[in-house]
Design a protein that fits this description.
The protein is α/β, with parallel strands linked by helices. It has helices at 3-17, 42-50, 54-65, 88-100, 132-147, 163-175, 197-213, 215-229, 233-256, 267-271, 274-283, 321-335, 350-362, 398-412, 421-438, 450-453, 461-480, 494-504, 506-516, 520-539, 548-572, and strands at 28-29, 38-40, 71-77, 81-86, 113-117, 151-155, 288-290, 293-296, 310-313, 340-346, 371-377, 380-381, 446-447. α4 (88-100) packs across α21 (548-572), α19 packs antiparallel against α20 (520-539) and α20 runs antiparallel to α21 (548-572). It binds arginine.
Length: 580
């Protein structure tokens, strides 16, 4: 058990002995550190139940527990706050427990299987800045879920189906009508056709523009898409090629971002289940006709806003995005035994998911106790607060953005590096981008500001990396000098206490992050504890300290904070370079 939890239990028992019974009690980190490290505020609440003054209750409790070895001191403040200053031995024991097994501070015993849908890039469209947050937040939540004890299954949910595909294929057909894919007798054989991601990025907007201007072209694209869905041999083979080329680029960028998936499925895979889904829905008698479309009513009596019906099949007979997402849920709950499905998607898709979730529940595709959770995220804007564009006004490709930040990092932050400059610069750039992306609460919009995000003295990923690299190099120097250390034996400065008090609070931060599906508190926490460590570092000369017990304790503390930061950065998907 976590030491604070154990202490809470112990106090609870003593309180029971003097007549105050509670299911559980909570000690909170004090917001008046001058009065104590932790606070117990329960007396105010007990006062109502027991008709005594909170001050009297608090005083009685303190009388009963004041000799605990866990406390350095304990006192009551009006109207009934109990302020606790923890003993050094308590803090040291906690620190050494954590040094031996850092996972104790993270495992919440969450015994669930959680399916996470994030990433969601679209094939044949450039991977742009709008997809960054889904990948970052999704991956970080996935990592967090695992650390708190849950089992996870992640899926990229590629946008690889639908009319855009028809348009791109049509554009290729128009340019290269003689390709074997388009021959009557094509039979699925390998075709020598060199298609690059650059081609795709250009093909899609050209095709959309043409189709928008010309009804006939639009109809042709629709027709191709329909045939593609029926697995027309030529279109299907070409489509596979398009997906492959697109995915290769996506995989490279995701690799740099430390983003990975258990399943690399796409909407096309869900589409395989569309017939089963429709059979089921018809069986449930909940599909309605509406102006040539097929819909499911999802309105509820308590709705304050308008809630349009979910459209399964549009009036032009195309299968909708909503139907695909229902098919995805169908597939997922049939293949896996899931407690929860999380979607990490742009918050502007809120209505879409509300409709899909309601339809899934109403039709009984998911059981009542399976939770469907929409974790929407806010928009990344340019430094001026307007939608993020390239210099010539186009959408900002993620790769360009990564390259730009990498260049800035290479130019500014790497005086001491001669080898592997580009790789290290990339790592630092990824840290800068990811930290800045995870720092605001998930749903908050933010402005992308390279200068700010790479500032070595700011609340940034680069600051954190730099600090960790320095801790690591201190530990290396200690090793070279044969300085032995393994556990903390003494605390000799106020800063050391502050670090450990902050460390004690970690489990709560982890719990809240998991409950809020957001990494912002972990980011803040990393900054806070790193700052405290740096204050300690500035104040003490660790390597030249003559008192060996002190020195070994300081090195152990450094190791603890380094290990812990590494573990937290791991959750965020950020790696620490050897040098910087
Ligand atoms: N491809 C979609 C987009 O770019 C995101 C997919 C989100 N996930 C889902 N299951 N609908 O908007």
């Amino acid at each position: 058990m976590h030491k604070i939890e154990a202490l809470e239990e112990k106090i609870k028992k003593e309180m029971k002995e003097i007549g105050y019974e509670l299911d559980n009690i909570t000690l909170n980190p004090s917001n008046r550190p001058d009065l104590g490290d932790y606070q117990y505020n329960g007396a105010m609440m007990l006062a109502k139940t027991y008709h005594e003054s909170p001050f009297d209750i608090a005083t009685k409790i303190v009388q009963k527990i004041k000799d605990f070895p866990e406390f350095k001191s304990i006192n009551v403040a009006h109207p009934g706050f109990i302020n606790i200053t923890l003993s050094d031995s308590f803090l040291i024991e906690f620190a050494n427990d954590s040094l031996k097994d850092i996972t104790k501070n993270y495992n919440l015993g969450i015994n669930k299987t959680i399916f996470l849908d994030y990433g969601g890039p679209n094939v044949a469209k450039v991977l742009h800045v709008g997809h960054l947050r889904s990948a970052n937040i999704g991956q970080a939540l996935n990592n967090l879920c695992k650390k708190v004890g849950a089992k996870t299954i992640s899926d990229i949910h590629l946008g690889d189906w639908g009319r855009p595909m028809g348009m791109v294929i049509l554009e290729i057909k128009t340019r290269y009508p003689d390709l074997a894919y388009f021959k009557e007798d094509y039979n699925g054989e390998e075709v020598d056709f060199n298609l690059t991601n650059e081609d795709l990025i250009e093909l899609y907007p050209t095709a959309t523009k043409k189709a928008k201007e010309n009804e006939e072209i639009m109809n042709e694209a629709r027709d191709i898409n329909l045939k593609l869905q029926q697995k027309h041999k030529g279109y299907y083979s070409l489509w596979k090629k398009i997906v492959e080329v697109s995915l290769k680029e996506v995989k490279e960028i995701y690799k740099d971002l430390n983003v990975d998936f258990d399943l690399w499925e796409g909407e096309s895979d869900n589409f395989e289940y569309i017939n089963d889904l429709f059979d089921y829905l018809y069986g449930q008698n909940i599909i309605k006709e509406s102006d040539g479309a097929k819909v499911i009513e999802v309105k509820e009596d308590t709705d304050k806003k308008e809630m349009p019906p979910l459209i399964l099949i549009k009036s032009n007979q195309a299968v909708s995005y909503e139907a695909t997402d229902l098919a995805a849920i169908w597939e997922r709950v049939h293949k896996f035994n899931l407690d929860e499905i999380w979607y990490i998607v742009d918050k502007r898709q809120d209505l879409h998911f509300t409709q899909v979730f309601r339809a899934a529940k109403k039709s009984g595709i998911v059981k009542d106790n399976t939770k469907l959770i929409f974790n929407g995220f806010g928009t990344i804007n340019g430094p001026d607060g307007k939608p993020f564009k390239t210099r010539d006004g186009g959408v900002m490709p993620l790769k360009t953005l990564l390259d730009n930040v990498t260049e800035v990092c290479e130019a500014r932050l790497m005086e001491n590096i001669t080898e592997n400059r580009r790789d290290i610069a990339r790592m630092i750039a990824v840290a800068a981008i990811k930290y800045a992306d995870l720092l605001p609460f998930r749903t908050t919009d933010y402005n992308f500001d390279i200068e700010k995000f790479t500032d070595l003295n700011g609340k940034t990923g680069t600051y954190l990396l730099y600090s960790c690299v320095r801790m690591n190099s201190l530990l290396k120097k200690a090793k070279e000098a044969n300085l032995d250390y393994d556990l903390i034996k003494v605390l000799s400065t106020e800063n050391e206490r502050k670090i450990l008090i902050t460390m004690l609070d970690l489990k709560r931060i982890i719990k809240r992050s998991f409950e809020n599906y957001s990494l912002n508190e972990i980011c803040e926490y990393l900054y806070k504890i790193t700052n405290l460590y740096n204050n300690f570092y500035a104040e003490n000369k660790v390597l030249t300290e003559e008192n060996k017990e002190k020195q070994a304790s300081w090195l152990s503390l450094t190791k603890l904070i380094f290990d812990n930061n590494k573990y937290l950065l791991d959750i965020l998907g950020i790696n620490i370079p050897e040098k910087m």
